Amino acid sequence: MSHKFLSGTAAVALLIGLSAAAPARADETPAHPMIGPVMFSGHVEAGTNLNPDDPENNTNFGQLFTDRSNSFRMNQLMLTAEKDLNPAATSLDWGFKAQLLYGTDARITHYFGVWDHATNSPYQFDITELNGQVHLPEFFSGGVDVKAGMYSTPIGYEVIDATGNFFYTHSYIFNYGIPLKHTGVQTVSHINSMFDVWAGVDSGVNAWLPTRGGDNNGSPALLAGLGVNNPIPNLTILALAHLGPENGYVKGNSFTYRNGAGVAQDPNHHARQIYDIVTSYKVNDQLTVANEINYIRDDLFRASAEGAAFYGIYAWNDQLSFGARAEVFRDDQGFFVSTPLASTAFVNVQRALSPASVLSNGKATYSELTLGVNYKPALPKTPLNAGLTIRPEFRWDHSWGMNPGAHAFDASATSTGTKDDQFLFSIDGIISF
After folding, report:
1. Residue 236 is inside which H or E element, if any?
2. Which of these, 30, 243, 329, 390, could form a disulfide with 172 (CB 3.0-4.6 Å)?
3. Segments of 285-341 assigned E as strands
4. Whole-number CA gyration radius for the chain
C-alpha cells in the first residue's frame, strides 16, 4: 500500500478523533458576532479523498475542488462580513457582503485577472464576493432587490461556501454545468408572495471587469429567470438562464478563435447558453428532497452537455443527518468535463491560455452516486462560538459511451485512464466561527 494512501488514512483518523474528543453541550451555538448591523463569520474546511486505485498522476478525474487523491488539503479558510437585506422591509433598506477565500478551492473560483496568476501554489487567495445591495419598496408588492459588484452565481443547487453544502465532493453539474461567480448587476423583483422575477447583466462566467484581462471577450452576458415559492407548501422552484459569449483570445484589440474548420471566428458573436432548474421540497421536519436539471451549450465550439441530479437529506436529530446524491451528466462532445493537472490550469483553460495542463477524456456519459453523513458534535462554549461538522462520504463514479478502448478513471502517469469506475472514500471537517 502506498505512502500517499496511508497518509490520507491518517488524515481520516485525525478528523474522526476531533469529533470523538468533543465534549457535549446542551445549548445551541449563539449567533455570529455583530458590530452594529454587520455580522462577522468564518470557517475552516479541510479534508481528504481516499482513492484505492492510487492513480499515478494523483488525480480524481471528473472533479475540480476535490481533484487530488490520497492527500490532505485545506480547501477553504473563508472570512465574511455582511449586512443582510431585511426580507420583510417595507421601506428602503441596504446591505453588503465581503467574503475572502484562502485555500485550494481558490484555484477554481478565481475571477479573471483577480489574483488568478499570483502564484503557482495550490494554496491561493480569492475574493468570493464584494458587493452592495439595496431593497427598493417599489414597483411590486414585495419590492425589488438589487445587487451590484462581485457575487456568487444564484444558479444551481450547490454553492462555493462549504457550509452551504451537504457533501464534500461536488456534482458534475456544479463543476461543469454552471458558472461560479459574476461581476455585474442582479435584480430580483418580488411580484407577489409566490413569484420572483430574476434579471441581470454581467461580464460573463467567472469574469471580472472587461479591462486589464478581467474578461476573455468584449461582450456582456445576461441572466434571467423565475422563482416560484410555495405553489404547494414547502416547495420552491428556481429556473435561471445565463446567456453570453465566454470564449476568446485577446490579441491587441481583436478577439479571434479558430473553430474546427480553421476559420477565424469572433467569440463575441457566439454565446454560451446555460439553463438550470432547481426544485426543492421539504417533505417534513426531517426529510428534504431536491432535484436539479441542467443544460449547457457553447455555440462557438458547437458543444453541449446535459445532466440531472437528485438529492435526499434526512435529519435524524440536531447532530446527525444522512444524505444521498444520484446524478447523470452527458458531455456530448467531450468539451466540458476535465480535471486540472496544475494549479493554474483551470483558469488558463477558461482564458484560452496555454499550456492547458488538464486531463480530458472525450465525449462520455458520467454517473455518480454519493452517500454521506453530517455529524455535528456539541462543542464547549468558546468566545468564537465555534461549531464543528464532520462529513464522511462514499462516492462511486462510472463512465460509458466513450471511444472504444478509452477509459476515464485511474489515470496513468501518461494521463491515460485505465478504468470506467472510480470509488472514493472522502471526509472533511468544517470548523465554523
Report:
1. strand 235-244
2. 329
3. 287-298, 303-315, 320-331, 338-340
4. 22
Do 131 and 150 touch, CB atoms closer than 8 A? yes
CATH number of the domain that residue 126 is part of: 2.40.160.10
Would you state the cell numbers that stand for residue 357, as one nine-digit string? 495542463
Closest CA to 61 of 401, 338, 372: 338
Greatest extent of the chain over all pairs of C-alpha atoms, in Å = 68
| Sign of the Cα pseudo-torsion (158, 96, 75, 318, in order) | negative
The label of the residue with cell 453570453 reads: 244
Q: Which three cell numbers stand for residue 411?
A: 489515470
The whole-angstrom distance between residue 300's C-alpha and the CA centroid of its chain comes to 24
CA-to-CA dists, residue 63 to 21, 127, 233, 424, angstroms? 32, 22, 35, 11
Question: What is the rounded distance in angstroms from the CA atom of residue 257 to the CA atom of residue 262?
Answer: 9
Tell me the CA distances in angstroms from 102 to 98, 122, 165, 325, 366, one per residue in order: 14, 10, 18, 27, 30
User: What's the total number of domains in the chain?
Assistant: 1
Given a contact cutoff of 8 angstroms between Cβ atoms, the answer to whether 274 and 296 are in contact is yes
- Helix runs in 310-414, H state only: 345-350
List the pLDDT tens digit at each of the 433 positions of the chain. Answer: 554 555 555 455 445 444 444 433 333 444 788 899 999 999 999 999 999 999 988 899 999 999 999 999 999 999 999 999 987 788 999 999 999 999 999 999 999 889 988 898 999 999 999 999 999 998 999 999 999 999 999 999 999 999 999 999 999 999 999 999 999 999 999 999 999 999 999 999 999 987 767 877 778 999 999 999 999 999 999 999 999 988 875 444 344 444 445 556 777 878 899 999 999 999 999 999 999 999 999 998 899 999 999 999 999 999 999 999 999 999 999 999 988 888 888 887 777 665 567 778 888 999 999 999 999 998 888 777 889 999 999 999 999 877 766 788 988 766 678 899 999 999 999 999 9
Domain, as residue range, for 331: 3-432
- Specify the DSSP class assigned to residue 173: I
Of 201, 200, 194, 202, the C-alpha closest to 227 is: 194
**φ/ψ (deg, to 5) at 11:** -65, -40
- Please tell me the distance from the alpha carbon of residue 391 to that of residue 372, in angstroms, as a whole number: 7
Residue listed under C-alpha cell 471511444: 403
User: What does each C-alpha distance from 299 to 271, 273, 333, 375 come to in angstroms?
Assistant: 6, 8, 12, 44
